[in-house]
Amino acid sequence: MLTKNIAEMEKTSMNRRQFAIRLASATAGIAAFGPAMGMSAKSYARIIGSNERIKIGVIGCGGMANAHMQALLEMKESDNVEISAVCDIYSNRLDQAKELTQAPAFNNYKEILENKDIDYVLIATPEHWHYQMTLDAIDAGKHIYVEKPMTHTIEQAQDIVEKVAMSKLKLQVGVQGMSDDSYETAHKMIQEGALGKVVMAHIDYSRNYVDDFWLDKPDADAKPGVNLDWEAWLGPAPKRPWDPERYFSWRRYWDYSGGIATDLFIHRVTRIIKSLGLSYPDYAVSSGGTWNFVDSVAEIPDTHNMMLDYPEKTTVMLVSSMANDTPIRHVIRGHKATLEFTRDGFTITPQESTNVAAIGKAGENLGGNELFTHKKTGAEDVTLHHRNLQNAIRENEVLKCDSKLGLYGVVACMMGVQSLRQRKYLKWDAQSETVIKS
Hints:
This protein has helices at 6-11, 14-33, 63-74, 91-101, 109-114, 130-139, 154-166, 182-191, 230-234, 244-248, 260-276, 382-395, 403-422; strands spanning 54-59, 81-87, 105-106, 120-123, 143-147, 171-174, 198-204, 283-289, 303-310, 314-321, 330-334, 337-342, 345-350, 356-357, 366-367, 372-375, 426-429, 434-437. By secondary structure, it is of the alpha/beta class. The chain has two domains: 6-37 and 49-176 and 383-404, CATH 3.40.50.720; 179-211 and 257-379, Dihydrodipicolinate Reductase, domain 2 (2-Layer Sandwich), CATH 3.30.360.10. The strands form three sheets. It has a ten-stranded mixed beta sheet. Helix 6 links the parallel strand 4 and strand 5 (143-147).
């Protein structure tokens, strides 16, 4: 199971839970990479002047990391940043990253963390490593850009929020859609009454694969013990014999991924959480299964649908299929008006029955069936997302997707994963801050 079973979660206190996961993860990290190599807790990072070059270490050099590295290389002169180190446990990927960036290359990520010249690290590894690497980066006094989801479990995300709060470090979660201003603007307008009482939001993220889904062809050159450290890659995950499909197609397995929820829904639900100012759901329920790719060895389903009820008396619905990519409208429904997100921003359309939608100071005052349109600034873009982190480091700019927003996204998605795997209707216990049976 991805988290403790429900009975255990009802009995476990916050302090005991956090102590247990920190101890278990620390043990896993030592087992995978050896002794702590002189790591010690630090409360602050090196102070960086507004004109000083920011130096970045890249941990994980797979597909998504390559998109990041390309963006950061293009920012080198305009934003005064530099990739100063790269790391991967597979030599072929590491060599490619070294050639691309012309930066020193390492097999052990802790060697990057030991480098006092590194200002922030990009963590672009499979999900099961996000937590430990983030903890180690905080202990080393590094700012962090961690790919989504922030962590693999709810408990880990709670721990990261507390650890970041005790430091003076900046942590950006890689939900780069938050660098589109539409969601901040929508939140202001909704708070000012543009939609009236919000009752529902629905959004999707679907794809259409042909023969199988999320299947990446293994590299025939990959040889554990020769050019790939399989034990280090497994890290805190259960130990298994070498399996090239698990390595190259890790998103298909629960040990390393939350499937559709943590790879796709995390992008969508974070938008809704930001727009509506939500935090923890009251209830969660999921449906779905492997409906099309019935011969696939993937553990995760090809269809996943989630419903989340929030204490604000609002339902959030998320829909996904890996066998049909016809989209649904991305809308927030209020009693007075409906907000629909578009490629260019969003529109607000009054309900005919109310004949009015009070927009407030964030936009026009509307009457009748008039339509309001917001044209976005920013975009769903890793360059903008990195720039926001860099500005936060240099000038204390507000982060677009900080650890708290990262936590709320993890809670929503992992409650959906647990509901689907357990076939249970689940509740968030606000007192213990754990998931329990409804």
